[in-house]
Amino acid sequence: MKSQVFLFLLCLVASALITSCQKNNNQGSADKPGISNQVLSQIKAKGFSTSNVHVVNGGYLVEGDIFLSTKDLSQKGLTNKVRVAKTEQYSTNNLVGGLPRVITVTVSNLGTAFVQGTDLAIQRYNALGLRIQFQRITSGAADITIQGFYQGPSGGYITLGSSGFPTDGGDPYNLVQMNTHPDAYGSNPNVQYVGSVIQHEIGHCIGMRHTDYMDRSYSCGGDPVDEGDGGVGAVYLPGTPSGPDADSWMLACSNGGNRTFNANDIIALNYLYQ
């Protein structure tokens, strides 16, 4: 998710209180030094936008809050024929397999608000009765680790969190990163706000893409930004609306507060995991 005063990814725009999954410092970041044409071609081949690419430790951030490692880019993506989504709920080609399944989650070296926010997100998913359930564990290896990073605002944006998509082998993406800088959530983070961001990032981990994929300005404001051509990994989910969906938990930018599943989100999740 992303926003314009401070990205809510979630990020957040100052005047509009819009937030986004991840920080987006420059609309023209694809032209930044240090990002080769080869890398941009690999990102495009996987169906992601090259207009807002940022170099981070171990890889690149695209579409505001999606982390692509160097290894991710070197692997050939699936080429299933899919319907190109515009503003409907939709998923990637890769989904979590081995259902029914319990996905374990651990919170590593983060404060109480992040632990409670994780529990809130888990509670919301589990209440849907899906064939994937989540369980927070405090010891042992987990399927998803939630950990912190520290990064201040840049170019009018601040990254709130990031994650990625399931593997070809059917495992959820294994990492959610949450910004511990005070400009992201303040000195006393609101549990519902933090939990909503974690809920969004877990959505990516199990294969959900942004609801306003083809026009980020719908939730983020500013100029219309297409996250990519959708040629790979934008699978339309039947039963979801063909127009903008103002309350979806997978909008590119958050409203800066509490946001959970709306009725169409539940239809999408039921279609994939019921």
UniProtKB/TrEMBL annotation:
Keyword Oxidoreductase found: no
Signal peptide: 1-16
SUPFAM superfamilies: Metalloproteases ('zincins'), catalytic domain
InterPro entries per record: MetalloPept_cat_dom_sf, Peptidase_M10/M27/M57
Keywords, ordered alphabetically: Signal
GO terms of molecular function: metallopeptidase activity
Superkingdom of the organism of origin: Bacteria
Name the UniProt record assigns to this protein: Dual-action HEIGH metallo-peptidase
